[in-house]
Amino acid sequence: MKFLSFHRLSVFSSILFVVLAINLMFAPTQMLTSWGIELTTSVGLVARRIAALYTGLAVMFFMVRHAELSTTRTALISGTITACSILALLGVYEFATGHATSGILTAAFVEVALVLAFLDVGLRGK
């Protein structure tokens, strides 16, 4: 994946996180329905709060898109790898236990792809 630089991955991640945030903030039903989750008041509250976190991640990655190899950049990469790994594992777990439908596996696939992309960029940076 030599075409993948930290800059490109940061911009892509920013866009992805903004799209997720907008979806979860203003139209959560589509994503939740694909996972087999009913939108209730409680689920909506959690979805909107998660949207705020995705927005913050988008801003962080956009602002550091030009960052050279540093402890800060490595921390962002490591944190994203950790979070996306856990999210992917949780997605597979929720599907396996019947708490979510197979639609959640699409999210898990995207999370695994992000893990691999950030691993590639992080390892090439060292």
From TrEMBL:
Protein keywords: Membrane, Transmembrane, Transmembrane helix
Keyword check for Transmembrane: yes
Transmembrane segments: 9-26, 46-64, 76-96, 102-123
Domain of life: Bacteria
Keyword Transmembrane: yes
Protein name: DUF4345 domain-containing protein
